[in-house]
Every structure is written in C-alpha cells, then in structure tokens.
Amino acid sequence: MALLDFSRLRSAFEGELYFDDSTLHTAQRAVYATDASVYQEMPVAVALPKTVEDIRALIDFAKANSVTLIPRAAGTSLAGQVVGKGIVVDISKHFRKIIEVNAEQKWVRVQPGVIRDDLNKHLAPYGLLFGPETSTASRAMIGGMIGNNSCGLHSITWGATRDHLLEVKVLLSDGSEAVFSEQTIADFTKEIREKQIKGQRLQSILAGMFGLISNPIDQDLIKKQFPKPTVTRRNSGYALDALVRNFEKGNINLCNLIAGSEGTLCFVTEAKIALVDGPPAAVGVVCVHTNSLAEALHANRVAMGYDPKASELVDKYIMDFTKKHNVYSQNRFFMQGDPAAMLMVEFWGIAKEEVEQKAAALIEQLKAKNLGYAYPLLFGDDANKAWDIRKAGLGLIRNLPGDTQPVNLIEDCAVAVEDLPAYIEELEVLLEKHGLHASYYAHAGAGELHVEPMINLKTSEGKQQFRDVLTDTAVLVKKYNGALSGEHGDGRLRGEFIPFMMGEEVYEMFRQVKRIWDPDGVFNANKIVDTPPMNEFLRYGQDKPSPQIDTVFDFSRQEGILRLAEKCSGSGDCRKTELTGGTMCPSYMATRSERDTTRARANILRQYLTPETAANTSQEIATSMWIW
C-alpha cells in the first residue's frame, strides 16, 4: 500500500487520529493490532472519531485512498472481525449517549458505544432491559452486538440482537446518511422509486436487495442451503434467510441484514432497540451434577421440555480451574462431589414456590431417567455466584500452563438441540483423531456448546491442526445441517468455509450483497467474504525459540513475563466501567482510552517481547513503554 497522506484529514478531524511512525502513533496502532481472537495485523491508522462528521470524513478518505475502515467497539470479537490492515475506527470513547427512552412503547435509542450492562442499569427504574447478554456484557457495546448479532446466556428466552433491532441510522459507503426499519413491501418499492432520482448509494441498495430477496429461485436456494429451521443460532454469512422469512410475511427490514454483518456494509451511528420486561421476582437455578458430558446433554434435552429460561453447561475442565482460584473457589459452595459436567437450568416464577414446583418436576423426571446425581436449587446471590463460574469459562481455562492453550476455532458451531448429544459425541471422536482434548461449556439449551480445543499455535504442527480441525468440523456440522457460526460470527476465521457450508451459489449471493452495499470496500474488507486464509496473520509465529528474559521481579510461577502477558485473551474485562463492573482499571475508567487498559499493556508487552514482531516494532514499542 502506498504511503497515505493524512494531513488534510487531520486538519478537519475533531477526534484523535494516529497514523505515522512516531513512537506514540506506532504504539497506538500496535494496541489495536488484535482483538479477543488469535489474529494480529498492524493497522495503517487508528481513529477515535468525536462526531458523525468525523466518521463521514473517514469514509471520504477511505474511498479516495482505497483503504478500508474497520469499525470497532469494545474489541471483544473472537473471529478477528476488527483486525486488519486498514483504519481501525474506535467509537467506544465518544459515541456513548443514551439518546431517548420510551418506556411506554418499550424501546431505547442509543449510540453504538453504549455498554450493554450500563444501559440496563439506566433502564432499571423503568423495569425494562435489553435482553441479549454476552458473557462480556459488562463491556460489550451495542454497536458490536449489532455487528455480531450477539445473543448469550438467555437466548432461548430473549433471542439475539437482530430480534430487538427496530431501526438503525447509518452512514453508507458514499458518506450519505440512511435510516432503516421494517417496511411493507409496497412502501419499500415506493421508496425505491422515490430515491431513484437522487442517484445516491441508498437507491442502489434498496433496488439491489429487493431484486435479490424477491427472486423465487434465490428464495428457494436460501431456504435449502441455510441451516435447518430448528437451528436457532445461525450467524454464518449475511442473514438472507431472515430477509426471506420477513418477505414472505409481506415486509422488508434491512436491519435484519445489518445485524450480524460485522461492520462490512455500513457504519452504524444510532440504533433504536426493543426492550423487554425484567425477570419476575423469583428466579432459581437447578444445578444438575452429572457423571459425564453425554449425561449432561441428555439431561438438557429433558430440561428443554420444562420451558426453562436458560440451560447452560459447564464441564469439569472449567470447574477444576475454580478449585484454587482466589475468587471462584468461594463460588463452589453448592457443588457436591466431583461432577464431570454440570447443567444449569434456570426457571422464573411470580413466587419462589412456583420456581420450586418447576424445579421439582424436572428433578423427578431426571431421576426417573437416571440422569444426574445431585440437583441443588439456588436463588438470589447464591445463583449469581454459580452463574459467575459459567460466565468465566474461557477466562478460567486460559490459566492452563505452557504454550498449548484453548483456541477459539470451533467454539461457535451450533446444531439443533435434539442433535446436540450425537454431534458432540462425534466431535469428541474427531478431536481424539487429531490427538486433541477440549473444554465444553455454555449454551446447551440453544444447541451450541463452546468447544475449545487445546492447540499450540506456536508450532507448525499446531498451525496446521488449527486449519484441519475446522475443516473436519465443518463437514460434521454440515452433516447435521447446522451453523458453523452461532453467535461469534465469521470474521476472518470462518469466512473461508462459507462456500463449503452453504454452496458456491449462496456464497456468491453474499459477495453480491457486499458489492451492492459497498462496491469500493470502504467498510471492513475481507471479513465474511474474500477473507485471507484462516491460519494466517496469527498472534504467534511458529517454531521460534522462546526468548529468555531476565527480570528484576520473579515470574517463574507464571513461566516468565512473556507467558504472563500472553495470558490476556483480549476479552476486555479491564474495560468494565464503575457503573456495573466494580473496581477495575482506574486509568481506563478515567480516560476511556484503550491504551490505558490492562489489555493494551499486555498486548504491547507481548508484541515487544515476541521475537517475530521485534524486528518490526520493538524499538518503537520499547520507547513507548517508557512513555506509558
């Protein structure tokens, strides 16, 4: 890429812009070189826009200079969605306004940098909340949740972000503003005619999308090639299936497409989202202790017949990491014996007695089927402590010693609930064939377990395993007509496998969608479609000798300072605010700047100490560490 001239953009830009090779700018770009995934690539620039006009200026600059914009919120994406050689546009610092609450109609209008849990604290006096809840809800932002179509622990009750997205205000790839919401087909086609004389990108989008989803041949192909209807978690490619379902009801809602599009189609500046009533007074969790993973999954099928509000799994791998943990060891008070897996089934009721009746009915059925050996029922703070163990899943298993670590790879595959026991049984055999073991946890009630195989990505063998395991798993998921991505998205991890999963014709439709919305690649290029190979641009080089680093402090218990820095997965716990996250990183709380997070410090330290990056950035980063 030719050297970009940012001088004119800089003179009119109200926010922060980092683009040159100076110490500070290089360090800022290095901080944004990765997210919560295994990928790493130095961006050409980082922008923290302050106004919508700043974003429009970035779009004009990107189009004129053939560079892509990478929208970023909290940076907790797991498939490399916000990693790339473009301009990272971080909206988390300045786009944090809750604009309007309509309690009577149950909706709220927000900017994309509003944090999910902070929003719900604001909504608490109204008795309302935004339902979808990722395990990162204390820092995940509405913009990122739209981009990934996030759902989370209670998805069987509250659905995904797409189900709540009523309206979005966006900037298109020509810099023009548009607002999308649900319309009748008649109103939609009328708008196409009215916009025709304007010649802006909007008319091309409306006409192009109508032509795509109104074609009966394409509709049939989409229905045939997408996951089967009982797979509720489906986040692969662009959501043409959601558009077709709505079209058959007489409506078109392009919000359905924008949710899950990973910032590749437009830039969201405001969102109107539907709210739900908070849970009733009584909420209880049955913690079903089982002797095997398979037993827990069969218990899950039974539990789903009792209309639970959540049904989540935690395996022995995760539970074992809580035993000596300074916080989570105290949360084990309810555990009996040494379960191989635990199914957490939540029930709601007007009164505690109603929850107890539902729980008793489930427990009686489980005992009759010889599923489980202990069934404690928890309420209130006790239940919250148990849920904390489940939510801490990936963070806990990151404490594994050595270079073999859990990787986000096949953690997002989803099948129908009735297929989950058979799918996991075959997956265990598949991983054994590759000589790997894994942790299994999360959304059993939605047909999606987060399966984290343990792979050493610092070796050539591990890098190849990374590809081979996903290749073989894709075949297995397709056998069950499931989704390769249930909630974490394709990004640059799974995009390469979409043609296999859905067929070349549907994949070409996805490419057509990208061309309709963004023919110049202004927004987040090479995500979902036309992605680079999935095992390139990894955080780690392969087969490099581990550097021996002398330190004043003793890090031997953590296997050295480098391995300690590598423990940061990038999940962004250090971005919690004082509103809902409790005491965390005080410097970030004061500045709201990524560079002041613990995550940023770990990333900059890791890049400086890692041999393969040292030749490119070590001097600049080393100097910047003195500044920080």
TrEMBL record:
Which cofactors is this protein said to need?
FAD
Keywords, alphabetical: FAD, Flavoprotein, Oxidoreductase
Classification via InterPro entries: FAD-bd_oxidored_4_C, FAD-bd_PCMH, FAD-bd_PCMH-like_sf, FAD-bd_PCMH_sub2, FAD-linked_Oxase-like_C, Oxid_FAD_bind_N
Residue stretches making up the FAD-binding PCMH-type domain = 39-278
Q: Which Pfam families match?
A: FAD-oxidase_C, FAD_binding_4
PANTHER family, per database record: D-2-HYDROXYGLUTARATE DEHYDROGENASE, D-LACTATE DEHYDROGENASE
- The protein's name in its UniProt record: FAD-binding PCMH-type domain-containing protein
This protein's species is Dyadobacter beijingensis
